[in-house]
Amino acid sequence: MHNDISEILVTEKEIADICIRLGSQLTKDYKDKNPILIGLLKGCMPFMSDLSRKIDLKFDMAYMSVSSYHGGIASSGDVKIKMDLDISIKGRDVLIIEDIVDTANTIVTIVELFKHRGANSVKMVTLLDKPEGRLRPYQPEYVGKVIPKAFVVGYGLDYDEYYRNLPYVGVLKPEVYNHE
Ligand code: PRP
Description:
- By secondary structure, the protein is α/β, with parallel strands linked by helices.
- Helices cover 23% and strands 29% of the residues.
- It contains four helices and nine strands.
- The chain has a six-stranded mixed β-sheet. Strands 1-9-8 form a three-stranded antiparallel β-sheet.
- The protein is globular.
- The chain starts with a strand and ends with a helix.
- The relative contact order is 0.21.
- It binds 1-O-pyrophosphono-5-O-phosphono-alpha-D-ribofuranose.
- 1-O-pyrophosphono-5-O-phosphono-alpha-D-ribofuranose (PRP) binds next to strand 2, strand 5 and helix 3.
C-alpha cells in the first residue's frame, strides 16, 4: 500500500497538530452554543474521530453518506445522498466535518440543503482544502491544511475505496490509476 504513494503531503504529526489547533478554536467559538457535528461519510471518519476528541464541549454527532466521485478520480458533479440524517437540524448550529474540499460540489449542495432544512448556522471544518480544484466558489470556515492540485489518498480519502486506512495523506502515483 505505501509503495503506491509518491509523496507524503500531511504527516501523522501534522494531522495530530491540526486536530489540536482546530479543536481548541472550535471549543472557543462554540462555547455558548450546542453544536451538532455532522460527518459526511465515508471520508470524514478518521478526522471526525480524532477532531471530536479535541473539542472540549457537549455536542452531538450525526452522519450522512454522500458521494460524487463514484469510484473514479474526478468529481461527477452529481451529489447523491446515499444515507440521510436521522435527526432534525432545525434551529441547530451545524458543523460539517469533511476530509477535503475540492470542486466544492459536495459542500455547496449540502450547505444549501441544511439551510433549507432550517439550521440556525452551517459552517464547515475540513482537514484539507484544494482551492485550485474549485468549480464553485466556497471558502470553508475551518481548514486544516491547504494542499496543491494532486490526487491524494489516506486518512479517510480513498481511490476506489482503498487507502482510507493510511495514517497520513499522500499523493497517489499516477500509474496506479492511469490504467483506467
Ligand atoms: C469526497 C470527500 C468530499 C468530496 C469533496 O467524497 O469526502 O465529500 O469528495 O469533493 P468535492 O469538493 O469535489 O465535491 P466522495 O464523493 O469521494 O465520497 P467518500 O467520502 O465516501 O470517499
